[in-house]
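Chapter review: from sequence to fold.
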Amino acid sequence: MKTTIDFTQIAKVLKLTVTRATVSPQAQVGTRRRGIGALLRNGEQGQALVEIALVMPAILALLTGILTFAVGFNNQLTLTNATGAGAQYLALIRTSTTDPCADTLTAMQQAAPSLTASSIQISVTMDGVTPTQTGNSCPGAQSDLVAGQPVSVTATYPCTLLVYGSQFLSSCQLHAKATEYEY
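The token string follows.
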């Protein structure tokens, strides 16, 4: 099947449309002299501009809220993933570590480079015992790492939900917990 396009007919239709839409030069000069004020007073010619000016701040506020929530949700997913990686690493180094909390935190920081490392707080539970921690360090707690027992890592991270420069939720904390079992 062969298709042919008649460009002459299309050109005639376009020429007719343009001819109907053209305004006389005298009318164009008058419009230029009247300016924007005349456009706004003359019927509905400025209605779209006014509607956009009224609606745009609400749309931008909604978009900013969506993007702020997306950043917070991304931080939660990253923290959860890092906590799982830290728990897996702790289960693997069960017999070779002298500071399980610090080693777990290092593994978590490597798994979550987009989070501020100094803001991550962890708590490690080994064989049902949570060792005494100084910050994110618990030297000497490797004796609690009993073979065949689960290890749990709990992490918290502050969420910063800034909306137009002001903190949305000032006491917001993200939490994640992972437990690894040895079989």
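Two observations follow directly from the output. The chain has four helices and five strands. The beta strands are 121-126, 151-158, 162-163, 166-167, 173-180.
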